[in-house]
Design brief:
507 residues, mainly alpha, Growth Hormone, Chain: A
Length: 507
């Protein structure tokens, strides 16, 4: 090959590198959405209910949250391209294990393995942007990355929904297929990057962080089975203690891997508020709307994927519109307040639509939530990047994903717990009021559990009570999240404003 041809190949590779990173990010972003769409089928196929279902819904995002900082540091040590290839192979192994899972336990383990791989994919992909962006072109590279990630994410999520409509196991073969195709593309299009970190950074602190998040969120997921089990609360307390030990350790070790002093900065705390509104809201809305459409309205996963399209497209259009508004002077606090209020309005609209018998009634609510959480998401990444100290740039930028997935996991787990408990209490109250004995009510609850597992409808009276209770529980949940989103957005906006004034004063 002559020099001209070689140069042409290099230029082509350079042009395709950032879009490739966007596709990789879309694979990571679409995987939890695909899992949410396929969850009903997987739950029925593997007899997952209550705590198991909550854990199955949140395990992948939990694993992403727990591992992304560590895998980001590992990428700095062994090289980003090597890390990407290893992460893609891990995601393949985990998702294939989910697809062939004979039991709920194997399903959950597979989601954990795939979550570790997918977290590393995003961390390494995002870090690559710095290497590939031309001088002064980092914002343009980030914008191209986000645009490709958003568009590809819609396509992947929709495709996964269609596959889930045929068989829930097929949905979990999409990510392995995409990951397998990505491996040679990574090797051909992305340059090798020499390791940038040689010293070891506080392995014990990393282990404390991972253990704390896993233990705490496992306890949260088990609340779906019982709110009064002391073991569940003890597990949650143990998780909190491990996280506290992590924070304390970072102030004592010579080479901490995360600057905990950021938690004293208003701008950083404001960014976390924005991340909470975005990720918690997306998780709760996506999962619970999907479950309502399937359990109550009887939609197939393929039909769910179709009805999700307006919401997904709104996220992309909203990002474009809001990005332009930000460049024209809209402040981060204004973006967060706008996002929080729109998201709150969307959740209220979803609550009001709870008794509708068509998914069309929920689309306006979904569009409002999508536009709102997209507006809230804009300050999240920019403020965290602006607050990252140079010596901790990798861990802090990775922490964006860690906190985001932690909030996402809380959204899936807590919303599942809330709807489950509200439905059970609602069914019990309705059947007691109808004159059923305690033993008949217990039997009725068992038949509702069987419906959740295998789709066999219980007796008409029981089914009517179950669907009414589920709709009411959904409405209460949506209302509560609306209030929470508005409050957190207000707090975050005030923190951002205070941080901005402090910065101006300091400057």
């Amino acid at each position: 090959m002559n020099d001209t041809a070689t140069a042409d190949v290099a230029r082509t590779a350079s042009r395709l590198a950032v879009p490739l990173l966007g596709v990789l990010a879309a694979v990571q972003g679409a995987a939890p959405n695909i899992a949410a769409t396929a969850l009903v089928g997987a739950s029925r196929g593997l007899d997952m209910v209550g705590g198991q279902q909550a854990l199955g819904a949140s395990m992948q995002t939990l694993a992403i949250a727990a591992s992304v900082i560590t895998t980001g540091l590992l990428a700095d040590r062994i090289g980003r391209r090597r890390m990407l290839v290893a992460a893609l192979l891990a995601s393949i192994a985990g998702q294939v294990l989910v697809a062939v899972a004979p039991t709920a336990l194997v399903y959950i383990v597979g989601q954990a393995v795939s979550g570790i791989g997918l977290g590393a994919v995003y961390a390494a992909a995002f870090a690559y942007i710095q290497v590939l962006a031309a001088p002064g072109r980092l914002p343009a590279a980030v914008a191209a990355f986000a645009a490709v990630a958003g568009a590809a994410g819609v396509v992947f999520t929709f495709s996964g929904g269609l596959l889930a409509g045929a068989d829930w196991r097929l949905a979990f073969l999409l990510v392995p297929l995409l990951s397998a195709l990505a491996v040679p593309a990574v090797l051909m299009l992305l340059p090798a990057v020499a390791p940038s970190v040689t010293e070891r950074r506080d392995v014990w602190g990393q282990l404390l962080l991972m253990a704390g998040m896993v233990v705490f969120l496992y306890g949260v997921s088990q609340l779906a089975s019982s709110l009064t089990n002391p073991v569940t609360w003890a597990v949650m307390a143990a998780g909190i203690l491990l996280l506290a030990a992590f924070a304390w350790s970072q102030t004592r070790v010579r080479h901490p891997f995360f600057p905990v002093f950021l938690f004293r900065r208003p701008l950083f705390l404001g960014a976390l508020c924005a991340g909470f509104v975005f990720n918690f809201g997306v998780a709760a809305a996506f999962l619970q709307l999907t479950n309502l459409w399937q359990y109550v309205l009887g939609l197939t996963p393929a039909a769910v994927a179709v009805w999700q399209l307006p919401v997904s497209v709104t996220s992309i259009v909203g990002a474009v519109i809001l990005g332009r508004l930000m460049t024209r002077g809209m402040t981060p606090q204004a973006s967060l307040m706008l996002g929080g209020l729109l998201a709150a309005a969307g959740f209220v609209a979803a609550a009001l639509a709870r008794n509708a018998d068509t998914p069309l009634a929920f689309v306006p609510a979904g569009v409002l939530v999508a536009f709102g959480v997209t507006a809230a998401s804009l300050p999240y990444g920019t403020l965290i990047l602006s607050e990252a100290p140079a010596e901790f740039y990798g861990p802090v930028t990775s922490a964006r994903t860690t906190f985001g997935q932690l909030f996402y996991s809380l959204g899936t787990a807590l919303s599942t717990v809330a709807v489950t408990q509200l439905t059970i209490s609602g069914i019990t109250a309705r059947l007691h009021a109808a004159g059923m004995s305690a033993s008949d009510v217990a039997s009725a609850l068992g038949s509702v559990g069987a419906y959740a597992k295998d789709g066999r409808r219980p007796a008409p009276q029981v089914f009517e009570a179950a669907t009414a209770a589920y709709r009411d529980g959904f409405g209460v949940l949506m209302t509560a999240i609306a209030v929470l989103a508005a409050i957190v957005a207000l707090i975050g906006a005030r923190l951002i404003a205070r941080g901005g004034r402090s910065g101006n004063a300091a400057g």
